[in-house]
Design brief:
single chain, 353 residues, alpha/beta, five-stranded parallel β-sheet
């Protein structure tokens, strides 16, 4: 059953290894996060060995997990001790032990992060790694939900839970169709409230820097699916939506991969005055047609683990895209009204025309 959920065969070497497609976390980022920098693994450390060490050395583990999610271990000193051991002598074996232990952590976000870390390293998708991701997508905590959804879509793309995450929601309340700024959601966020009329970020823009923000029930939305094909279809639908309404010079805010839908659309006839990218993974395959947009700006947190899992770069590194970096690691922070007020982001994006 697990094999049927895994989709295409996983590479033999993890994405964070020296042979992987994505770079490891840079040492400067590790220092900023307060975690030890690790060298790339030459070979994958077996999970079974870590399970045996936990069973032998730590009384909290009654039996090593085999084919089911492990029991929760509430003694936080256990995790602190493992983290101190890793910090004292960083290496793949001790890192593997800490990750394995954190699958039993009482905090849901930590369990999701542990399962994701194992999969990024190249570990096989098993029941005990799948379960925290599925569970995490049901969290009321936005960061947990985003990380779990991104990892589930990447490593189990055929899982039935993903269909629930792209189901459309009902528009919250009608707004004005004559205005010229727009909000576009990211992956799995189609039904979320923040970007729709009446939602907290929509209201922040409407009562602040963008009183012209679009709020009619026919506002543009895309599937929010996790695939290049879903983003390509979203871009084509956006081109058609904008053309039908003669909206070729508006401002667009796109969160996460919603920003990449906007960038991809510029290569197919879509134009805009300004594109504002919020926590958007930087990917070469979505480089925009720069001459179709008068201005592109990006807002991102200092380090975004959801972007890492998505396989994107944290920064665009292109002089034609003006970037603003704010503190933190929360993928959803860039559409939080309090964050915008605290960091003066209204002034960064500039006023409506």
């Amino acid at each position: 059953a697990v094999d049927s959920l895994a989709g295409p065969a996983m590479p033999e070497v993890g994405l964070l290894s020296r042979h992987g497609d994505a770079p490891a976390v840079p040492p400067a980022t590790s220092r900023g996060l307060g975690i030890p920098a690790l060298r790339p693994e030459r070979r994958l450390v077996p999970r079974e060995a870590a399970q045996e060490r936990l069973f032998d050395e730590l009384a909290a583990w009654s039996t090593p997990p085999v084919d089911a999610p492990p029991e929760r271990v509430d003694d936080l000193e256990v995790y602190a001790d493992l983290a101190e051991r890793l910090d004292a002598r960083p290496g793949p074996t001790r890192a593997n032990d800490l990750i394995e232990a954190c699958l039993s952590h009482p905090r849901r976000l930590t369990r999701v992060a542990a399962a994701t870390a194992h999969l990024l390293r190249g570990q096989e998708l098993t029941v005990d790694l799948l379960a925290p991701l599925v569970d995490g997508t049901r969290s009321g905590h936005a960061m947990t939900r985003a990380l779990a959804g991104q990892a589930l879509a990447r490593f189990a793309p055929s899982h039935a839970r993903l269909a629930d995450l792209v189901a459309p929601g009902r528009p919250r309340r009608p707004g004005d169709a004559t205005h010229s700024s727009h909000l576009l959601h990211g992956t799995f966020a189609r039904a979320h409230a923040w970007w729709q009329a009446g939602g907290d970020f929509h209201e922040h823009l409407r009562t602040g820097p963008r009183p012209d923000v679009y709020g009619a029930p026919d506002r543009f939305e895309w599937s929010g699916g996790y695939s290049d094909e879903a983003r390509r279809i979203g871009a084509m639908e956006l081109v058609a939506w904008a053309a039908a309404r003669h909206r070729g010079d508006d401002d667009w805010f796109g969160h996460s991969h919603g920003g990449n839908v906007l960038l991809l659309a510029t290569r197919h006839g879509f134009g805009a005055r300004q594109v504002l990218l919020l926590s958007t993974p930087a990917m070469k395959r979505y480089v925009p047609a720069f001459d179709a947009v008068a201005s592109i700006k990006a807002i991102r947190v200092w380090f975004d683990p959801v972007v890492l899992v998505a396989g994107g770069a944290q920064s665009f590194g292109d002089a034609r895209i003006e970037e603003r970096v704010i503190p933190g690691v929360d993928h959803g922070a860039t559409h939080e009204p309090g964050v915008w007020r605290r960091h003066g982001l209204d002034a960064f994006v500039g006023p409506a025309r």
